[in-house]
UniProtKB/TrEMBL annotation:
NCBIfam families on file: glycerate kinase
Family to which this protein belongs: Belongs to the glycerate kinase type-1 family.
Name assigned to this protein: Glycerate kinase
Keyword set, alphabetical order: Kinase, Transferase
An example molecular function term from Gene Ontology annotations: glycerate kinase activity
Database matches in SUPFAM superfamilies: Glycerate kinase I (SSF110738)
InterPro entries: Glyc_kinase_flavodox-like_fold, Glycerate_kinase, Glycerate_kinase_RE-like, Glycerate_kinase_sf
């Protein structure tokens, strides 16, 4: 081997975090070849696991208790390094926090993410990376902005309750009470979603059903988000409803772009910069990427694709480890991935794969050491 192995996986959803995946693969590599040099660089794409990736690269955790998507207390954390903080919507306002019978498509809120942003400001952050993805709500970011000091009012001047449904009655948005620190804070919206806020490709139509919305509720939410966007524009917000990414996280992307002045960037690019990925890549002889399901979606803005692109550009061979691989060898080669190893190759039962993922990943790591080192 001309250099150490860089292990840079994303999470195996429902099974292991990205740092846990990296550790398991590293253990297998060392079992296969004891003298191998290993670097770990777990990654994410802006969704769940974003804070974990930052913490694994040396950011410090700050625990925060926030209101979950339907108001229940949720213990989460932000990551901070200097004056840069990483806030992850999925761990504060995420769909995964709710059971199927708890879904509340009209009432779920992004308030908890706003509380996490306040915690970041309190910790001295002047750059906030907001990782969005996996949202339980379709509230256009109204809950988040309310926590930060905005007022969302009906025609009688009364505050609206949380959720996207009540935005059908929004008459006025007052942004004069926003936390003054926001004006001096740089917000980076880390997302792989390019949907606008409204319409057939918008937040309600595309993502509402997975949050429990039936067709009638989808239409209601889309109309409510239109009301919300008109009220925000009248209050001095930016005209960004049609911008790619405005529909991210049930419209939290819109709230961040229109009111917080956020800049949207591909989530994986943001994370790779946060963890100084290029420095970790330098001198590596092999890069191992991975995630739970390696499929065509992986190749469009997901963490593994971003890592692979950087490695290929640097002329470093790339191999993948996954729970299951749905890409042909030819398709993998097209994007510079020289081989793929799947848990289902050695354990056909998906439930056993998830339950025993760490030991199976170590076995694949050992096999990979024999094949590539």
């Amino acid at each position: 081997m001309p250099g150490p192995v860089l292990i840079a996986p994303d999470k195996f959803k429902g099974s292991l975090t990205a740092p846990q995946v990296a550790e398991a693969v590293a253990a297998g590599l060392r079992r296969g070849r004891a003298d191998v040099g290993v670097r770990l660089a777990p990654v994410a794409d802006g969704g769940d696991g974003t804070v974990q990736a930052a913490l694994a690269s040396g950011y410090l955790p700050i625990p925060v208790r926030v209101a979950g998507p339907v108001g229940e207390p949720v213990d989460t954390e932000i990551a901070i390094h200097g004056d840069t903080a990483v806030v992850e919507l999925a761990s504060a306002s995420g769909l995964a926090l709710l059971e199927d019978d708890e879904l509340a498509p009209l009432a779920a809120s992004s308030e908890g993410t706003g509380e996490a942003i306040l915690a970041a400001l309190d910790a001295g952050a002047r750059t906030v990376v907001l990782g969005v993805g996996g949202s339980a709500s379709t509230d256009g970011g109204a809950g988040l902005l309310t926590v930060l000091g905005a007022r969302v009012l009906d025609a009688a001047g009364n505050p609206l309750p949380p959720g996207g449904g009540p935005l059908a009655r929004v008459a006025t948005v007052d942004l004069s009470g926003l936390d003054p620190r926001l004006a001096d804070t740089d917000f980076i919206l880390a997302s792989d979603v390019d949907n606008p806020l409204l319409g057939e490709r918008g937040a309600a139509h595309v993502y509402g059903p997975q949050k429990g919305a039936d067709p009638q509720q989808v239409r209601l939410l889309d109309e409510a988000l239109g009301n919300w966007a008109r009220a925000v524009l009248a209050a001095g917000g930016r005209d960004v409803a049609g911008q790619p990414g405005a529909g991210a996280a049930g419209g939290v992307g819109y709230g961040a772009l229109a009111v917080l002045g956020a800049r949207m960037r591909p989530g994986v690019d943001v994370i790779l910069e946060l963890i100084d990925f290029d420095q970790r890549l330098a001198g590596a002889g092999l890069v191992i990427i991975g995630e739970g399901a390696l499929d065509e979606q992986t190749l469009h803005g997901k963490g593994p694709a971003g890592v692979a692109a950087r490695a290929v550009e640097a002329g470093i061979p790339v191999v993948a480890i996954a729970g299951r691989c749905r890409l042909s060898a030819e398709r993998l080669h097209e994007v510079g991935i020289r081989g793929a190893y799947a848990l289902t190759d050695i354990e056909p039962d998906p439930q056993r794969c998830m339950a025993n993922a760490a030991s199976l990943l170590a076995d694949l790591g050992e096999r990979l050491a024999h094949d590539w080192l």
